[in-house]
Amino acid sequence: MQKFANDPSNMVNESIRGFVKCYPDIVTYTESERVLKSTSAQDKNRVGVATGGGFGHDPAFIGYIGQNMLDTVAAGEIFMTPALEDLCIAFRHADTGQGVACLYGNYERDIACVEKAIEIVKKEGIIVKSVIANDDVALSDPDKRRGSAGEILMWKVGGAAASLGYGLDDVIRVAQKAVDNTKSISVGLASCIIPMVGQPNYLIETGTMEIGVGHHGTSSLDTCKLRTADATVDIMLDSILRDMPLNEGEEVAVLVSGLGNTMLMELHILFNRIYDVMQEKSIKIHRSYVGNYFTSLDMMGASISVMKLDDELKEMMDVPVYTAAFNHFHNKK
């Protein structure tokens, strides 16, 4: 294993320090080095938006802190739940008296920690309500579905709603609507290497791929022969559209994310096929994103997320943001 590291056990802290130094106009520290907050002046009438999760999914989670998106993030060790006190700190800094929306993924330890943190800050007068993303269609049971790259679209919608002055209940409502209308699936071509371990989690044999692979480098439920890019997209979209049928004339947002070790060249080839399939079905892509938005260390592969839009969700997606990961304003009509 060859990595740019000083001490593999301290990579998260060092990476966070470099991140803050790189984006001082966007993020800053709290009293905990593992909790970052937005430098944007927060309106006292604005609901706070927070999240937390394990490191290793760069630019998620801290890359989505910023104007009109996330206010605070608590970061855990690689693929690990944040510390309980760090989540409490994130909620405290996100709150301006209007409550906090905690938008995060469907992982058992994360859920337990968030629920405990909510109980703690409630005693301090801070009201936190949550939405749990379960957009990964690789698992048939909705209650067990993991949060995947669709979390980014949930953060985008939730942050936009808060910036437009929605109250806490309505921020939660529209974030839940985003989750309910977002489906994702990933394909792995090679597993990731956790720096402290120094070897792959498991082996994906040359000439094969794994449909529905997890974002923590976990193996999938379906290993098959490596397909062409177009055939792979067709398999992925079939899984998404079986779960969320789309009708002619409907509009969607599409996000294609590399898993950490996949070239942009490849990701655009995937999107080329996605676009053509949507055109064939007379479905309009209102917003499209291609890049490394939600990764799994150095895993080779990609995820596709599709969010079905109504007028309200379109409005949320059109709200401009300024973050390290979405570092431009959206002016598309």
Describe it for me?
There is one protein chain. With 333 residues, this protein is of the alpha/beta class. 32% of the residues lie in helices and 24% in strands. The protein has helices at residues 11-22, 84-94, 108-122, 150-163, 168-180, 229-243, 264-280, 311-318; strands at 27-29, 35-38, 48-55, 66-67, 72-78, 100-105, 128-133, 182-190, 208-211, 222-225, 251-258, 284-291, 300-309, 322-323. It has a 6-stranded mixed sheet with strand order 1-2-5-3-6-7, with helices on both faces. Strand 11 (251-258), helix 7 and strand 12 (284-291) form a beta-alpha-beta unit. Helix 2 (84-94) crosses helix 3, helix 4 runs antiparallel to helix 5 (168-180) and helix 6 crosses helix 7. The longest helix is centred in the last third of the chain and has 17 residues, at 264-280. The chain is globular. The mean pLDDT is 93.
Structural category is alpha/beta
- List the helices and strands in order: HEEEEEHEHEHHEEEHEHEEHE
* Main sheet record: 6 strands, mixed
Counting DSSP E segments of at least 2 residues, the number of strands comes to 14
Walk me through the topology:
Elements: H1 11-22, E1 27-29, E2 35-38, E3 48-55, E4 66-67, E5 72-78, H2 84-94, E6 100-105, H3 108-122, E7 128-133, H4 150-163, H5 168-180, E8 182-190, E9 208-211, E10 222-225, H6 229-243, E11 251-258, H7 264-280, E12 284-291, E13 300-309, H8 311-318, E14 322-323
Helix pairs in contact: 2-3, 4-5, 6-7
